Amino acid sequence: MNEAYVIGDSEAQRNEVRKILLQEGFDCPPENLFGLARADERLNSKLVPLVVVLLPNAPDQALEAIEQISRWPGREGYGISGVGDDSLGESASWPRLQGYRVLGVGSTADPKVVIQALRKAVDDFLDQAALDADLVQALARWQTLAHRLTQPGRVIAVVGPSGGCGSSTVAVNLATLMAQQHESSMLIDLHLATGDLAAMLDLKPEHTIVDLSSSPDRLDRELFKRVVMRHTSGVCLLAAPRTPEEAENITPASIRQIVMLARTLHPYVVLDLEYGYRQDQAELLRSCDFIAVVMRLDFISLRNTRRMIDHFERLGLPQERILLVVNRQGQARELPVDKVEEVLGLKITQSLPDDPRSVNQSNNCGVPVVIEVPSSKVSKGLGRLAMSMNGQPTSGAAKR
Q1: Which one, of 393, 388, 396, 337, lies nearest residue 174 by Cα?
Q2: Pick from 279, 234, 224: which is nearest to 257 by CA?
Q3: The pLDDT value given to residue 44
Q4: 161-216 pLDDT, tens digit each
Q5: Residue 91 clears pLDDT 60, i.e. is over it
Q6: What is the spatial distance between Cα 10 and Cα 29, in angstroms, rounded to a whole number?
Q7: Which one has a higher pLDDT value, 344 or 390?
Q8: Quick check: helix, strand or coil at residue 157?
C-alpha cells in the first residue's frame, strides 16, 4: 500500500484529504498529517511515495516545503532516470520515473502561486474548490503511471524489407486499433528523411521528433506531451522531421530515450521503422516486443525479406517476436504462400488482401482504413494482426 503525507495548516482540510486518500487505498495514519511548521522535521525523517501540500493559508511556507521536497534523492532533474547512457543495450532496464509524486492544493485564481509550485516540484496542482473530484483523478493518474512503470508498454516495430510494401499503412492502422482497445497508443515516425505519417492521419503537427532530440537533458513527460500530437482516434503521433537536413541532428541515443519514455506513457508504442543494417537499428530492434515484417508476394520482396530474417538471426532476435505480414495478397501471378513460407522458414502470421479502393480512399483522405472502412477485408485482417499482439507472442501460425 502506498503511504502518503498531508502537509498544511488547516486541520479540517488535512482530514478531508486524508479521508479521500483512505478511500482510494492509500496508507495515511494520523501522524502523517502535520502543519507547515513541522514540515522541515518530518520531510527530512522519511520519504514517502505521495505528498499532498495545502497552500491556501500560507502559500510562502508551503512553497518552502515544496522546495525542500524538490531536493529529495532522485527528484533533481525531474523526468526519467537512467537515460542518456550510450552503453544501454538489450540487457539495460527501462528507465523509471522517480518513485514519488507531489500534489499541490490551492486556489487556481492566483496564477503566480500555481506557476511557482509547478516550477519547484508539484506534479499536479488541484483546485481546492473541486478537491474531491480533482484529487481522485490525480490519484488515478498516478496509480496508472506506477502500473505502467512496473509493466511498461509493449513496443511494436513495423518494417518493410523493400519499398512499396505498405509498412506505414500497417503501422498507422495498428496504432489506431491499439488506441481503440487501450484508450491510447504512441506512433513514432522513424522514416526520418521521408516520413509521412502526419499526412496519413491528416495532422499538421507544430513539433516533431527533432524538438525532443535537441533537448535530451530536458526530456520528461510534460515536454513529451507538448511535442506529440493526438489524433481523434487516441493515437499520439511523434512526427518525422520536416526536412531531411533536420534529420541529421537526431542521434541513436536520443531515439532510444524517446522510445523508453514512450513506453512509460502508453500501453503500446508503434514504430514505423525505416529499416537498415546499422548498429543503432539493431539495438532498437532488440528492445521491441514484436517486429512486424510487411512484405509482398513477389521475388524482390521475398529476397529482401530473407536477407532481413538472416540479419535478425545474426542479431539473436527470438523468432517468436517476428510476425510475417503479407500485404496486398490476391494480385495476379504472385508467389504461392506455401513456397514463400518454405523459403523464409517462418509461417505467415497475417495476410492482408489487395484492396486498393479501401486503402487508397483512406490514405487520400487522411483517415486510417480501420476507421474509414471498418467492414473491409483489409480492416478485419489488420484487426486480427492487432489481436495477435495483445496477449502473449503468437506461435507464428498462419491466419489467412
Answers
A1: 388
A2: 224
A3: 80
A4: 988 899 999 999 999 999 999 888 999 999 998 999 999 999 999 999 999 887 65
A5: no
A6: 17
A7: 344
A8: strand
For 358, which DSSP code? H
Q: Does CATH place domain 154-388 in 3.50.50.60?
A: no
Q: Do the domains at 4-150 and 154-388 have one common CATH topology?
A: yes
CATH of 4-150, one of 3.40.309.10, 3.30.429.10, 1.20.120.140, 3.40.50.2300: 3.40.50.2300
CB 265 within 8 A of CB 186: yes
Residues ≥6 apart with Cβ < 8 Å to 156: 174, 268, 269, 270, 271, 288, 289, 290, 291, 292, 389
pTM attached to this predicted model: 0.67
DSSP per-residue string spanning 65-96: HHHHHTTSTTTTT-SEES-S-TT--TTSPPPE
CB 29 within 8 A of CB 80: no
Residue 48, C-beta contacts closer than 8 angstroms, at least 6 positions apart: 2, 3, 4, 5, 32, 100
